[in-house]
Specification:
6-stranded antiparallel beta sheet, 5 helices, 6 strands, 22% strand, globular
Length: 182
Amino acid sequence: MLSMMSQTDIKYYKAMGKLQSLISGATTLEEALSGGLDIVIKACNADYAVIWYADDESRSILNPYYWICPVDFSGKVHRKNEGVVGRVYERQQSEIYLAYNSESNDDYSDADFEAINISSMICVPLSNQFDKLGCVQFVKQTGSVEFRQEDADLCEILVTLIALYIDENVLLCKPSEDREVL
């Protein structure tokens, strides 16, 4: 006998379907990443998110590629192994802070998000079969319900789907200089 799926399970499956549909029809990396980021934010109820992309030359500096946040991330950078973003990129392992505490977790994220008090954070590596590309950072601000482990799992799955798109569309996957801030 099949058990009933929870509302959360249904929401997550719908998000995966939306993302698969979006990325299968995407014609550019920008379209896949910006649209995908929007779907993930809505699915896990994140307040903000940033896609950090490694520069082509040194592969040691991460620049903000797309962000959905009132803070302007232009000019902000992370180096590999620097803060949560740099560690996730270098180690290729997610870091999940369901209850974030800047004093013991990451001063760099506090500086990035400026006046926004972070209550919960998920940072997921973005890589394809060829290379480490960057990472995606999801944030909830103080006053929001903190992320749950299920949200972290969904973020990892959805970012993996985006990475699969990149694997299948290598020629489209160089970030362009003309990008829009969401």
